[in-house]
Amino acid sequence: MANELKIRDTFMAVSQDVDNEFEREMAEQMAGAQMSFPRAKVPSGGLLVFDCGDDNPKTLTGVIVEQHPFNVFWHDPTVINGAVPDCSSVDGMHGIRSNPNIEGPSGNCQNCELNRWGSGFGGRGKACSNKKAVYILRDGETVPTELNLPATSIKPFDQYLSFLRQSNKLLSDVVTEISLERQTKGDNTYSVCRFTRVADLGEAAKLEARAYARSMRGMVRSNGFVEVEEEDPFNV
Hints:
Helix content is 19%, strand content 29%. By secondary structure, it is α+β, with helices and mostly antiparallel strands. The protein has a domain of 160 residues. It starts with 5 loop residues before the first strand and ends in a 15-residue tail after the last helix.
């Protein structure tokens, strides 16, 4: 399979001729700002196009430059959409309660009773939603797009990570295509993300992508901020 893959010699499919003065000005402009990224949403109801605001692409293609797990918990599940979580974790391990008026977990996510199977509504799933954030630098863009994976898409992503590991590849070494597949469980129809390696980066582009990924990791994981605008079709 590897011999059939294309080799891409550029990391970004846009001009790299950005002068140092512009970079310095941009760094000063963003100093102290809360960094945010364009968002792509996994659709509800089994739709097969991503929701990117004004754009609804069938696939997201580019280099994944960062990924991390995160957990979110709402004491009242009826106010999830647009509501700040009562407890959240930006690393999937250490929960921080944001609402002092709500009794709830704070501390080690692994040992939290609300992060256990059967703690969800009606004994289904988990009360705490386990998700993953994936940041993909799409073709023609200079800022990565953030895609929050619901619980139903985490296993396919982890399988993709294992596949790349077996090939001695990092996420930032390859061009990835993310597509959607419709699935049904009981009365629920939902969309699941699928991940495909469509090209490898050349050596120079690979080094550039790895450096970019390191800078993204430091920026995102030190952010301490979880933003969720949609909820899983159900916790499974």
